[in-house]
């Protein structure tokens, strides 16, 4: 599926470049410059194309995102121009469509870059009739940091200062903590920062699909990551259940792509369901089974909130995710899917924003 998507992106980007190359020749400035030097009519657009290709060589996906959005906005601008010309019966005095497309693209993707790099705090408040042993349990969730994409290990440590300021009772990391390009030094620095967190019940971690690495190109393994987390006091849960105080159970699932993952109902078989049960699962696509397992709260990540509009509803429509972002309740179980504190590959978030999550659970 991933390779099919990449081929589609490549083909659409090439088609977009051809379209932009032909349309950019309509600018009045290029027409004026090419009166005495006709070769500039194609020379200037080709020079711009060469710059785009150079950026694409350095960062293909982000360049493709820019090209595809510029192509879309340019086509829509020309459609608008055609409609206005038919309504007014007048040809425009200058070619404004290209300028409008450039402006909209800069504003739209500029906002997307800000929403990607700026991390918000998202707060949820839930109630329960179960006894918690305290008036309020505050859970901080960090997901999809993909360390090395938008921040390094030191940058992650700075974000943790805001998490610490929220005064959480427990901190949970719901996968994709690192990426295939994460450097070992950054991983070690980030794990050390987790070790400095002050909480009531500790820090817990479940693996995501990127944490073990896909291509074996980085300078540490999934087991190295696990060892470094444990060295800093982080509890790694792989289809395991731990007691949090006297009234709360925390269950951490293996990632959906891990071999030998246990079914959700099997994980809660024989446990005391009168206790408040929190489940951590990186990928949000087993909601019915997790609700059937009598969990109270399930925390997920993986989707990045859809990352780019309109991927969030598409992910749900094709069955890739049960929920792309936010809060949903099924059968008495609350599900929260975080958009993540960072991104993967694409440096824009136009359908969501980067976040860490704070959940307050209150005794009713």
Describe the protein.
- This protein is of the alpha/beta class and about 375 residues long.
- It folds into two domains: about 110 residues, no CATH class; about 240 residues, 4-Layer Sandwich (Purple Acid Phosphatase, chain A, domain 2), CATH 3.60.21.
- It has eleven helices and twelve strands.
- It has a six-stranded mixed beta sheet.
- Strand 6 and strand 7 form a beta hairpin.
- The protein is elongated.
- The two termini are about 45 Å apart.
CATH topology of the largest domain, what is it called? Purple Acid Phosphatase, chain A, domain 2
Domains, number: 2
The strand count comes to 12
Tell me the strand percentage band: 15-25%
Mean pLDDT: 92
Distance between the termini: 45 Å
What's the architecture of the largest domain in CATH terms?
Answer: 4-Layer Sandwich
Order of strands in the sheet with most strands: 1-12-2-3-4-5
Along the chain, the helix and strand elements come as HHHHHEEHEHEHEEEHEHEHEEE
Principal-axis shape equals: elongated
* Main beta sheet: 6 strands, mixed
Alpha-carbon Rg, integer = 24 Å
- The fourth-level CATH homologous superfamily of the largest domain is Metallo-dependent phosphatases
CATH class assignment of the largest domain: Alpha Beta
Low-pLDDT stretches are: none
Q: Helix content range of the residues, please?
A: 40-55%
Q: Could you say which structural class the secondary elements and strand pairing correspond to?
A: alpha/beta
Q: Give me the number of helical elements.
A: 11
Itemize the secondary structure elements and their pairings.
Layout: H1 2-24, H2 28-33, H3 40-58, H4 60-88, H5 97-117, E1 119-128, E2 136-142, H6 153-165, E3 170-174, H7 184-195, E4 203-206, H8 222-231, E5 234-236, E6 240-244, E7 248-252, H9 264-267, E8 276-280, H10 287-292, E9 297-300, H11 311-317, E10 326-330, E11 333-337, E12 354-363
Parallel strand pairs: 1-12, 2-3, 3-4, 4-5, 7-8, 8-9, 9-11
Antiparallel strand pairs: 2-12, 6-7, 10-11
Helix pairs in contact: 1-3, 1-4, 3-4, 4-5, 6-7, 7-8
């Amino acid at each position: 599926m991933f390779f099919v998507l990449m081929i589609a992106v490549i083909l659409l980007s090439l088609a977009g470049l051809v379209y932009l190359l032909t349309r950019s020749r309509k600018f009045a400035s290029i027409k004026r410059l090419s009166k005495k030097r006709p070769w500039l009519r194609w020379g200037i657009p080709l020079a711009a194309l060469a710059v785009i290709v150079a950026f694409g060589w350095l960062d293909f996906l982000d360049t493709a995102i820019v090209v595809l959005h510029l192509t879309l906005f340019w086509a829509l601008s020309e459609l608008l121009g055609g409609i206005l010309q038919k309504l007014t019966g007048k040809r425009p005095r200058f070619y404004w469509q290209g300028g409008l497309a450039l402006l909209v693209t800069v504003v739209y993707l500029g906002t997307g870059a800000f929403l990607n790099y700026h991390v918000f705090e998202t707060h949820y408040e839930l109630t329960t009739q179960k006894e918690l042993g305290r008036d309020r349990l505050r859970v901080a969730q960090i997901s999809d940091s993909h360390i090395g994409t938008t921040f390094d290990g030191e940058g992650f440590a700075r974000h943790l200062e805001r998490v610490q300021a929220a005064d959480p009772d427990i901190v949970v990391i719901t996968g994709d903590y690192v990426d295939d390009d994460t450097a070992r030094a950054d991983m070690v620095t980030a794990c050390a920062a987790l070790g400095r967190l002050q909480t009531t019940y500790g820090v817990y971690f479940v693996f995501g699909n990127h944490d073990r690495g896909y291509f074996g190109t980085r300078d540490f393994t999934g087991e190295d990551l696990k060892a470094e987390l444990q060295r800093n006091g982080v509890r790694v849960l792989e289809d395991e259940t731990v007691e949090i105080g006297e009234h709360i159970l925390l269950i951490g699932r293996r990632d959906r792509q891990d071999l030998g993952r246990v079914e959700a109902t099997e994980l809660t078989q024989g446990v005391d369901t009168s206790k408040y049960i929190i489940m951590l699962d990186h990928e949000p696509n087993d909601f019915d089974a997790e609700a059937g397992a009598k969990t109270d709260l399930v925390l997920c990540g993986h989707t990045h909130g859809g990352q780019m509009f309109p991927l969030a509803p598409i992910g749900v429509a094709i069955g890739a995710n049960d929920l792309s972002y936010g809060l949903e309740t099924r059968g008495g179980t609350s599900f929260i899917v975080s958009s993540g504190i960072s991104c993967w590959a694409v440096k824009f978030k136009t359908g969501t924003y980067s976040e860490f999550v704070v959940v307050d659970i209150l005794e009713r």
